[in-house]
Design goal:
Elements lengths: L6 E5 L6 H16 L5 E4 L4 H10 L15 E4 L2 E5 H9 L3 H5 L3 H4 L8 E3 L1
Parallel strand pairs: 1-2, 2-5
Antiparallel strand pairs: 1-3, 3-4
Length: 118
Amino acid sequence: MVKMVNLKVYVASSSGSVAVKKQQQAVVGFLESNGIQFQEVDITMLEEQKLWMYQHIPKDKQPKKGKPLPPQIFNDDRYCGDYEDFFQSKEDNSVLTFLGLNSQASVNPSSRQLERFC
């Protein structure tokens, strides 16, 4: 029995920040190119999704000023991290561990299914 993948990347489709857009593209592009199934959740479309994201980011990962910026990555309700955490996991060659995935349940190189939620 294969476990359903519940990896979610919270993004903002209408971000005015070039840096945020590039970071979102880097995360999504990496996951897509490696056949890692995930859901892309656009926090600009549904207020409840944005509030859920804010409430589930640990206090020690919250910025001192303002709100956390996308991309933010979760596996079910477990917070994986933000772009900086993701980038570091790539550098350490530990992305699957960072994402809380085992390679057989999460990576499907023959099928690059992508579910987009807004």
